[in-house]
Amino acid sequence: MNAVFEISAAAPTQFPVPDRFECAFIGRSNVGKSSLLNLLTGLKNLAKVSSTPGKTRQINFFLIDDSIRFVDLPGYGYAKASHSSRQEWGRLITTYFEAARPLGVILQLIDSRLPFQTSDAGVLHWFIERKMPVQVVLTKIDKLNQSERSKQTKTLLAAMKEVGYHGDALAVSSFKGQGKRELMQRIIMLKGGG
Ligand code: GTP
Ligand code: MG
Fold first, then answer.
1. pTM for this one?
2. For the chain, how many structural domains are there in total?
3. What is the DSSP pairing of strand 68-72 with strand 21-27?
4. How far is ligand 1, taken at its centre, from the CA of residue 63, in Å?
5. Which residues constitute the domain of residue 124?
6. Which atom in ligand 1 lies closest to the alpha carbon of residue 35?
7. Domain of residue 31, CATH code
8. Directed axis angle between helix 33-41 and helix 180-191, to 10°?
9. Which one of 9, 65, 93, 187 counts the least CB within 10 Å of its CB?
């Protein structure tokens, strides 16, 4: 796979020309978005993995095999974020979703180890209300054993149903590579190819 970093955009004027199928990555700060982007592209440092949460404040665009654009959106739900940085987050995210981009799929990343978070519920519900194409991805599954994993998946899917999500949940580990192939296959299927 050939992955090229295009731009870190702070405003819509900096977004690339919308000429490719887009796959947007969204999730709480620290959920593992950058790590997953690195896993999928096979590049170690394409997206910066942060030790301090909430550092990704811009929208990063990556061109994959000249055919798909990966869009790394800034994380939400960081407890220590100030009111103004939350507003800033909301504004930037809204500009992306209102920019009439060729949005193919939104991958909403959810931490497989945690109970369903209020912030996750709010964001997921927002997409569903707008009939946007959202696919849930559970992260960090290397931290769970098989029985914890199936129990958590059930619990999380039940909670997601309450906000109107009726899809499935793909599970990944960026540390161990689990779920990478299934996720890439899903993205390609949604794009209508391969
Ligand atoms: P922000 O950009 O701050 O919103 O964070 P992010 O969602 O991009 O998360 P990032 O990839 O930077 O990872 C956050 C932390 O989780 C880091 O300490 C990673 O090492 C860890 N992490 C990421 N993926 C995994 C995983 O698959 N398994 C485990 N165990 N830890 C992970
Ligand atoms: Mg990040």
1. 0.93
2. 1
3. parallel
4. 22
5. 3-191
6. 11
7. 3.40.50.300
8. 80
9. 65
Chain position carrying tokens 């939350």: 86
CA distances from 112 to 34, 56, 106 (A): 16, 21, 18
The neighbouring-strand residues paired with 8 are 60
Query: What does each C-alpha distance from 33 to 3, 13, 62, 71 come to in angstroms?
Result: 16, 24, 13, 10
Distance (Å, whole) CA 192 – CA 133: 14
Alpha carbon nearest to ligand 1 atom 29, residue = 140
Long-range contacts of 42-47 (CB under 8 A, 24+ apart): 42/1, 42/3, 43/3, 46/3, 46/5, 47/72
The long-range contacts involving 156-165, CB below 8 angstroms and separated by at least 24 positions, are: 156/110, 156/112, 156/116, 159/115, 159/116, 159/121, 160/116, 160/121, 160/124, 160/136, 162/121, 163/121, 163/124, 163/125, 163/128, 164/125, 164/128, 164/129, 165/124, 165/128, 165/134, 165/136
In angstroms, rounded to a whole number, what is the distance separating the alpha carbons of residues 133 and 102? Answer: 11
Rounded to the nearest whole angstrom, what is the distance from the C-alpha of residue 48 to the centroid of ligand 2? 6
Amino acid at 181: R
φ, ψ dihedrals at 129, nearest 5°: -55, -35
Tokens 């590049």 sit on residue: 43
Write out pLDDT tens, residues 148-171. Answer: 999 999 999 999 999 999 999 999
Residue minimizing CA distance to atom 4 of ligand 1: 29
Residues 38-84 pLDDT 10s: 899 887 766 565 555 555 578 999 999 999 999 999 889 876 777 88
Six-digit token pair at 51?
Answer: 């030790």
